[in-house]
Write a structure and sequence with these properties.
two-stranded antiparallel ribbon, eight-stranded mixed sheet, 27% helix, binds S-adenosylmethionine, globular, 8 helices, alpha/beta
Amino acid sequence: MSPPNNIAAAELRARFVAALGEGHSSPWLAAFADVPRERFVPTFHRQDGRGQWNEVSAADPGYLETVYADTALTTQLDEHGVPTSSSSEPRLMLAMLDALNVKAGDTVYELGTGTGYNAALLASRLGSDNVVSADVDPELVQLARKRLAQSRLHPLVYAGDGAEGYPARAPYDRIIATAGLRCIPPPLLAQVQEGAVIVAPIGFGVARVVASDKGEAAGRFLPTPAFFMPRRTPGTKPAFAAWTFGLSRRPRFRPRTCSTG
Ligand SMILES: C[S@@+](CC[C@H](N)C(=O)[O-])C[C@H]1O[C@@H](n2cnc3c(N)ncnc32)[C@H](O)[C@@H]1O
């Protein structure tokens, strides 16, 4: 018999998936039903009214209910209390996964492993061998690998600047970024083939672009506004203050005019 906590989690997960699927059918719902979010977010940080961060774990009342709410959960803070990693709002994750428009056998590269939850959803649907995921923080990578293995999922997860991609497994059919970018990094554009779909947060939106045979990509923003933690380079912190944007509603990326800095 499962322990009570597992039963509660399974019930909450079933309700969570039903809510995600209300008025919206998606093949990704099976992956959300398959992967326990609490395994990837055993603790998170919540800010109180005074701005103080408090850690919340399974021992705290309301933990599971929050894990199965449509809420972003802050999972890492730097020494100044600035969030450096999180598990995104599930509904936004679903919108981004839907926008990828994957088919069986597609290979996907993810920039921003974080907790490993999105990598788990990808591997659950597409198979572990078809998923590569990078995080700039080696500690997060270690934790994500452990949690993925507990779920019997073994995508390739590595520490490094996800903007460089992972050429050894290229070309990819799809790319998803879960850290905020200023543009599609040129090395990623070079690691997809024509027709590949790239879904990436740019500014205060999520761009969905399709790669052309010229190594460029063009598309549109998803209707949902979103803001993700800015991409950082190894050894640096997210530069929230540096974001200024002048993007059109129809994003178009050409490697030579795009600086990832
Ligand atoms: C919103 S979180 C990712 C959420 C994640 N997909 C999940 O399911 O938990 C953004 C992540 O991007 C990572 N990140 C920031 N800059 C990066 C970079 N240059 N390369 C790879 N990962 C990066 C951060 O360390 C952080 O873990």
